[in-house]
Amino acid sequence: MSDPQPGRRRRTRLYALTDGRTAASRHGLTMDTMITAAADADARGSLPTEWQEILAMCPSPDGRAVAEIAARMQMLLTPMTVLLGELLDRGLIRHRPPLDASETSQVHLLMKIRDSLARL
Amino acid sequence: MRDYDSAAPGASPVKVLIAGGFGVGKTTLVSAISEIDPLRTEERLTAAGVGVDDLDGIENKAATTVAMDFGRLTLHHAGIVLYLFGTPGQERFWFLWDDLLHGALGAIVLVDTRRLDRSFPAIDFFENRGLPFVVAANCFHGEQPYTVEEINAALHLRDPNTPVLLLDARSRDDVRGALLSLLEVLIARARPTSPV
Description:
The complex is a heterodimer of chains A (120) and B (196).
Chain A: H1 14-18, E1 34-37, H2 49-57, E2 64-65, H3 66-73, H4 77-89, E3 93-96, H5 101-104, H6 107-118
Antiparallel strand pairs in A: 1-2, 1-3
Chain B: E1 12-19, H1 26-33, E2 39-46, E3 49-50, E4 64-75, E5 80-86, H2 91-94, H3 98-101, E6 104-111, H4 120-129, E7 133-138, H5 148-155, E8 164-167, H6 172-190
Parallel strand pairs in B: 1-5, 1-6, 6-7, 7-8
Antiparallel strand pairs in B: 2-3, 2-4, 4-5
């Protein structure tokens, strides 16, 4: 309730990570959007440490959801979304939106999910 | 959304919500089937919903930080990554959190039959918002004194066909069974509009 980050490890001020951008939803990134590092992100050495950490944790092709990156980076969801929007603008990451209602209401897909679950 | 060329390769994410009162075993359920140790993500919410006001560092007394534990389950054959999100304990806040509900496939409402009333808010919420769900009664210590029929009657479910299951939230098979039950509900709903 009080301070959301008691006893947390080091903090970089958000505006320093995002160049002061705050347009969180401009890219439509949500907690369940999948993020993968772009294949051509060679020059990572010159990037801020936090950015490198993020790129390292979402290798192609599987990637990680925004919520997972936020949790592993110990950041709140909204600031993480802002930061990922910046990485997206710079072509450092790719994103895959969650399936929308028109897709998740398809019987074939639902049956595929069911059959995959049954086989676990 | 704007550019398809930046769409990530690989499996598509899909969200399933795990709801229920505090202490009912949501995180236990998630960890029983997740391929990773459950993670915790947090968001700052205000009565007006998710704000960006927290970016300027000014304290807002109406704001609170909610935490969700979640896990992941990759279904390679289906090309799907299921993210199982345990809903935060502070219901009056997460009920305002549209991003949490938006795009969710469905929900498992986990109930403790010793404290059935704690599951009413989540059930009411999903019924009002039209999110498909199944009810899973957690059997603490492997015991459940009530039958499915008794639980069903006590919950006054709007749709009498809503599945009510008994499970042990620690059991991977049981949790998988609850997910399968949810999928059957979804398949039944989808059939009339998109026949096979």
